Fold this protein.
Amino acid sequence: MSLGRLAQQAKQCLRKRAEHSQLNAFVPSTTNQEAILLACQAADERQATGNPLSSIDGQLVAIKDNICTSEQPTTCGSQMLQGFQSPFSATVVEKLNAAGAVIAGKTNLDEFGMGSHTVNSIHGPVKSGWSGSGAERTVGGSSGGSALAVATGQCFAALGTDTGGSVRLPAAWTGTVGFKPSYGMISRWGVVAYANSLDTVGVLTRTVEAAKQVYEQIKGHDPKDPTSISRASIARETRHQIPSNPIRIGIPSEYILSELRPSIRTAWSRAIKSLQRNSSFSIHHISLPFTKSALSAYYILAPAEASSNLAKYDGVRYGNKAPSSSPGRGNDALFSQTRYRNFGAEVRRRVLLGSYTLSSTAINNYFIRAQRIRRLVQQDFNRVFDAPHPFLPLGRSKYRIRKRGVDVIICPTSLNLPPLLSELRANHERDPASQFYEDIYTVPASLAGLPAVSVPAPRAEGAEEWENVGLQVMGQYGDDELVLDVARDLEAVGNEK
């Protein structure tokens, strides 16, 4: 029996998965190849009769291993949840199934999403394998497995989670498209929480159009998720989405950092100049003064929420129980042994940091101040965007700029190119906080809950295969469609010969 187009594509993806197995993008033993091919053949039959379920019917979509699936284990890359089988699937997985998408398997990640390089996992690090010298490079994180699976053709698309840039950074370093929608536009029900007020399900694909197709299928209100935006609120958002003509692009002066890699600065400048030659766009310099404080605030708020979310993993309520080496000492010994043995070093570090910043002696100096900075970052964006924030009362219009604002902001996704894993380990041993700085361009949109997408920039002449540069498009809350439309134009610049 000859295979249809979708089944042939799936077979090719599975072949590439076998070829790239040493890169560690997928969690072991989460794929049933026979079931995948049968599902794709069924989709081919629906296509042949003109009744596809959606634009992604029969396409392979990988799922980050902190998103629950009822048919595959969900480990979060942690010994704490090794072997855990969820009794239900996350809402986003159910929506993919309803759209006819075929789940390709679970992808590797930093433990509980805590990391920027996908090296903190019980399944081992994800490796790009693109260095000309044969040395291994990081792919970014924490959704590095999802990004690499897409970049190497192991699936059509992949879901990740973005807390402070965990979809956009690996997208930049793997040459893929990584989209983080407005907070609350995609249900988080069934997603293992890291930081509730920041976590957002994101999409990784090879093109902006593919990202838009997946987003259209998984977005929407979910009554099971209390942070999901209601249908009435979504309708209110769409009323203000009238961009300028030409579209006004903002370039933040605070994002022009001396530490920015010259090749990334050059790619940014070339892309802006190309857009400037298009009569559909105009370029404007803006100021976001509280950007410099956003990273510090994020690394107080995110660990604080994580310490609360991970408190339940004690071996009794949730998580694998470690055998106590001190029998007779009660539950305290059991809890401490379980958490020490089953959490990795990075998770323990962030839980301790978060517990301290929430303590009675430190909460005012750290957590409360970080919340105030977060509000100032949000006000920065509201001041420079032409569109008002749809959830701000009319009386709060003082946050809008008095002259015309911009429609979107374009900036780099990362400061640097992907480092060697050996260099990363050495730097991490000397200074565990050194990895945090890579999030400096991605964290502000996360703190403000704004839509943002990383798009590959054209590779410089003579650049090596691993020298991928990502450019980021950010918009006002609810302007997800506009952000994707501008990203498509930015993508076209990258495709120009």
In short: The radius of gyration is 22 Å. Strands lie at 60-64, 102-107, 157-162, 177-180, 200-205, 247-252, 281-286, 408-412, 452-456, 470-475. The chain has 15 helices and ten strands. Residues 364-384 form the longest helix (21 residues).
